[in-house]
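Sequence in, structure out. First:
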Amino acid sequence: MGKSMPFTTIVLAMGVGALLGRLMEPSV
C-alpha cells in the first residue's frame, strides 16, 4: 500500500461521515 488509493479514501470518508451524522443527529 504505497500509493494513496482514492477508493479507500472515499470509503473511509463515507464511514466517518456516517458516524458523525449519527452522533450529530438526535436519537429519536
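Second:
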Amino acid sequence: MSRINLCRPTMMSWMHLFQTFLHIIQIVLSYFLMLIFMTYNVWLCCAVVLGAAVGYFLFGWKKSVIVDVTEHCH
C-alpha cells in the first residue's frame, strides 16, 4: 500500500507567507486607488473605473465553482 504524504497547513508555511504578501499588495493597491479617487479629478476617477471594467472583462469571465452550503435560494 502506498503511503500518502499529507502536509498540514501551518502558520509559518511558505504558502501562507506568500498569501500574506499578496494580501498586503492588494490592500496597498486598494488604498492607492481610494486616494486617487478622493482627489476628485474626473479623469483619474474615470481611469480607475475604466481600468476596473477592463480588468473584469479580461480576467473575470471565468467564475469559480464554489457552492455555499448556507445559501438557500434555488
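Remark: The longest helix spans residues 14-37.
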